[in-house]
Amino acid sequence: MLARISNTPRDYAWGSTSLIAGLQGRASTERPEAELWLGDHPGSPSRVDDGTGRLLPEWLAAEEPAHPALPYLLKLLAAAEPLSIQAHPSKAQAVRGFARENELGLGLTNDARNYKDDNHKPELIVALSDRFDALAGFRDLAETRALLALLGDGPGIRRLRGHLEAQDAASGIRDALRWLLSGDAGGAVDEIVGAVGQATSERFRLELDVLKRIAEARPGDPGVAVALLMNVVSLRRGEALYVRAGVIHAYLDGLGVELMAASDNVLRGGLTPKRVDVDELLSVLDTTPAAPPLLEPVRAGGVDRFVPDVPDFVLTRVGVEAGPARSLPTRGPVIALAVAGTVSVRGRSAADEVTLAPGQALVATSDETTLIVSGEGEIFLAEPGGPHA
Hints:
There is one protein chain. This protein has 389 residues and is of the alpha+beta class. Among the domains are: 140-228, no CATH class; 298-383, Jelly Rolls, CATH 2.60.120.10. Helices cover 24% and strands 29% of the residues. Strands 1, 3, 12, 13, 14, 15, 16, 17, 18 and 19 form a ten-stranded antiparallel beta sheet that branches. Strands 2, 4, 6, 7, 8, 9 and 10 form a seven-stranded antiparallel beta sheet that branches. A two-stranded antiparallel ribbon has the order 5-11. A hairpin with a 7-residue loop joins β16 and β17. α5 (155-164) packs antiparallel against α6. The longest helix is centred in the N-terminal third of the chain and has 13 residues, at 91-103. Belongs to the mannose-6-phosphate isomerase type 1 family. Its EC number is 5.3.1.8.
């Protein structure tokens, strides 16, 4: 069975006033529209547009009793300002953290709570805008030291360099983060931010441009100094970033399709007015320097399959061309999201055919093992991972 689904964009302050509206071909509300959630997550479940008024969790319970809950959450994400620097726990860490906070009697809405559920939250984002900027992982320390050398020799910069001279790179970064985020850095953050604002370099032009934009958006936030340690990633349309458990990251600007495990567990590390639990963040964080975590798709015949190393989800991008319809094997339940043109989707019954314009979506039950698509456009399919992937 196929059914059209929809939702109202989340109005987080960092959201764009134009990107989601522009994709959907409607006038802007002039308010931030940050994320459009497509799934059954209780934080913002999708509506099923079949005339019954049901939300997707209720629809799945009735129509998909073998799969009453989706293992993933699909989103359109539209950032006009930096999101918080953050990391997510592994499954084992989430289980322990959720149980511990339950034992402490912390309600799910308590501001002191870090774990809203017992699941991990790996996430994948594919750029839809021509450019999508992000921070992801810690930069090679030789490169970070070279960047720091441009910032002068003030006491705060010397202290930061001192942390990064540790014999073990991961330990040095961990110590630097604790110093920057615990409140002990004093005026060092302002000194570092001021030096970034004055620095110029052809070699680090992208990094300095991004850091200056972050400093302007989040003045005085110690996360600006944390960002100085991170890889800057500028995705082009169709390129993907995959963030595993423990990888520090922040999305900065642009429109993308995001797919993640169905969780709301976030440990923040700056660029936010919300609580930063430094000890808990460091307990889940992998501080080993590494290259940006890009994920290359498996490409064949106009189909890109982004297959991460977790069983929760796979994301498929399909370029649909005029001509004969094409068949796509799937492992449901599936959520399909159109992002360009006009694409028609049907399953076993032609009566179930749904035509999608950009920004529109449908859900297909797991007995629809093949989806047939036609028209001209571009569509993304979110589905559980599995052997076929």
